[in-house]
Amino acid sequence: MRLALEVGSLFQFLPWGVHLESLTIAGMAAEWIRPAGAPAHRVLLYLHGGGYVLGSLNTHRSLIGTLAQRCGLNALAIDYRKAPDFPFPAALDDALLAYRWLLAQGFRPHDIIVAGDSAGGGLTLALLLALRDQHEPLPAAAVGLSPWTDLVLSTATIRRVAHQELQLLEALTIRSWGKEYAAAVPLEHPLVSPSQADLHDLPPLLLQVSDAEVLCDDVLGFAGKARLAGVPVTLQTFAGLVHWWHLFWRLVPEARQALDKVATFTNGIWAAQAAAARLVRPPGPGKSAARLRAHQ
Question: Does pTM top 0.85 for this prediction?
Answer without folding.
Answer: yes
